[in-house]
Specification:
Blueprint: E1 2-7, H1 11-25, E2 28-34, H2 37-47, E3 51-55, H3 63-73, E4 79-82
Parallel strand pairs: 1-2, 1-3, 3-4
Length: about 80
């Protein structure tokens, strides 16, 4: 099962994405959830997920900055970008 790190600042959207990923799509587990890019970066190093799914607009560190930093650490990891 592939492990996903989910970075999204809106709790209701985060819950909906988690449910869709784990229950509708299947084959994936949300290994960690972050409300902003800084939190996601910490979890990225700690959890070592297979995939990063991130929103673009978040407080503290936006998704684009998160993507740049994630590429420095885990260049091979697939990244999915979402935006409202």
């Amino acid at each position: 099962m592939k492990r996903i790190l989910l970075a999204e600042d809106e709790p209701i959207t985060r819950r909906g994405l988690k449910k869709m990923i784990e229950e509708v799509i299947g084959g994936y587990q949300v290994a960690g959830e972050a409300a902003d890019g800084q939190e996601a970066l910490l979890l990225l190093d700690r959890l070592r997920p297979d995939v990063l799914l991130t929103d673009i607009r978040m407080p503290q560190m936006d998704g684009l900055a998160l993507i740049r930093r994630a590429r420095e650490r885990r260049g091979e990891m697939p990244i999915i970008v979402i935006s409202g």
